[in-house]
């Protein structure tokens, strides 16, 4: 049983990679955005970045679902920005069967992808705030780091390869 938390800034491909991983491995997919309360989505649609106070209940809701799945012995993939270490501590801390997957890419690449997206509540204008908030995972978090420069399928395959190389 594994929980993989796929993290990165908006536009890095979290949902695409998490969905591909879930499909390939037969795991449950949890889209972190679906756990946001309506007030958070309204705030982001208005171009306002979320505060930590906005994020705590959202992160705790995701973590509660992770724990429910873990208790049932079900593997899952969570797509969640998890930009700060304190956010990842809520989602991963004390869960030895949970692994962090960091989708890393340049600001220019991600900005171009965000500009091409349709019907997403997160405007490209908030990308600067995403990068300003981002605390890249350190070695002590034992992340799987995947470069997002390739195709989504290539990124998924890279993540799966790195997962299988881990000794649990």
What does this structure look like?
The chain has 168 residues and is of the alpha/beta class. It has a single domain (3-165), classed as Rossmann fold. It has seven helices and five strands; from the N terminus they run βαβααβαβααβα. It has helices spanning 14-25, 38-45, 52-71, 85-92, 107-116, 127-133, 152-165, and strands spanning 3-7, 28-31, 76-79, 98-104, 144-147. A five-stranded parallel β-sheet has the order 2-3-1-4-5, with helices on both faces. The longest helix has 20 residues, at 52-71. It starts with a strand and ends with a helix.
Topology:
Layout: E1 3-7, H1 14-25, E2 28-31, H2 38-45, H3 52-71, E3 76-79, H4 85-92, E4 98-104, H5 107-116, H6 127-133, E5 144-147, H7 152-165
Parallel strand pairs: 1-3, 1-4, 2-3, 4-5
Helix pairs in contact: 1-7, 3-4
- List segments where confidence is low: pLDDT < 50 over at least 5 consecutive residues: none
Query: What is the H/E order?
Result: EHEHHEHEHHEH
CATH topology: Rossmann fold
CATH architecture identity: 3-Layer(aba) Sandwich
Structural class: alpha/beta
Q: What overall geometry do the principal axes of the alpha carbons give?
A: globular
Tally the helices: what do you get? Answer: 7
Gap between N and C termini, in Å?
10 Å
Specify Rg, calculated over alpha carbons. Answer: 15 Å
Strand content: 5-15%
What integer is the average pLDDT? 92
CATH class: Alpha Beta
Question: Biggest β-sheet: count, sense, barrel?
Answer: 5 strands, parallel
Strand order in space, largest sheet: 2-3-1-4-5
Provide the CATH superfamily: P-loop containing nucleotide triphosphate hydrolases
Q: How many domain modules? A: 1
């Amino acid at each position: 049983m594994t929980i993989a938390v796929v993290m990165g800034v908006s536009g890095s491909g979290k949902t695409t990679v998490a969905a591909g991983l879930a499909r390939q491995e037969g795991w449950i997919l949890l889209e972190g955005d679906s756990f946001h309360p309506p007030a958070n989505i309204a705030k982001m649609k208005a171009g306002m970045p979320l505060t930590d106070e906005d994020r705590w209940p959202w992160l705790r809701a995701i973590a509660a679902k992770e724990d429910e799945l873990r208790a049932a012995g079900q593997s899952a993939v969570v797509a969640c920005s998890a930009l700060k270490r304190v956010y990842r501590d809520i989602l991963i801390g004390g869960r030895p069967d949970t692994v962090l997957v960091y989708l890393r890419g340049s600001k220019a690449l991600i900005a171009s992808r965000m500009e091409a997206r349709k019907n997403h509540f997160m405007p490209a204008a908030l990308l600067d705030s995403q990068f300003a908030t981002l605390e890249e995972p350190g070695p002590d978090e034992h992340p799987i780091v995947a470069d997002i420069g390739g195709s989504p399928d290539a990124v998924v395959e890279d993540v799966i390869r790195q997962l299988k190389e881990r000794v649990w």
